[in-house]
Amino acid sequence: MKTSLESLKTMNKEEVHNYIRKRLKLKGVDGHLRHVDSDLFLDKEHKRFDMSGYDESEKGECVKHNLSILNLFAYLGIYDFTSYLFLDFYKGTPTIYLKYFYEDENMEYDYGGYTTTEIIYEVFLKTIFSNKKERRRIN
Fold first, then answer.
1. Which terminus in the chain has less CB density within 10 A, N or C?
2. How deeply is 32 buried, as exposed, middle or buried, from its count of CB atoms within 10 A (0-12, 13-18, 19+)?
3. For residues 96 and 70, is the Cβ–Cβ distance under 8 A?
4. What is d(CA 124, CA 133) in angstroms, rounded to the nearest whole number?
């Protein structure tokens, strides 16, 4: 269920949020559960960032998990506007660190109280929905 960037840019905020939720939807579970109304439960469940910032069993586990979620949207070009884009969580507070490709300033944005969907939407606003210059990735 990949949507093109051009399609996303024509959507309103709620439609983009719904797209993000669908992209994050848990897969392979609904066929294994009985007596569950998927309209009430599974359609609303999706992957979420681990906002604790703490590793449960293996060092780096939390960062790998959160990066894997953000990378689901890499095909849209979210990394093409920045020299670096990093999402970090510390004691439940998400922070986006980035530096635009053709600029010198290091940026830092805190999003305490935001959901996974809202944080990804903010990444979109800072990258693919911005008017910043984009680096060329493909010849």
1. C
2. exposed
3. no
4. 14
User: Which helix (H) or strand (E) is 98 found in, with range?
Assistant: strand 93-100
User: Who has greater pLDDT, 37 or 85?
Assistant: 85
Residue 100 is classified by DSSP as: E
- Give residues with Cβ within 8 angstroms of 46, minimum separation 6: 21, 22, 24, 25, 26, 116, 117
Q: What is the pLDDT of residues 63-98, one digit of tens each?
A: 889 999 999 999 999 999 999 999 998 888 999 999
Enter the pTM of the model. Answer: 0.82
Describe the chain by its helix, strand, coil percentages, rounded to 5.
35, 15, 45
Q: Alpha-carbon torsion 18, 72, 77, 130, what sign?
A: positive
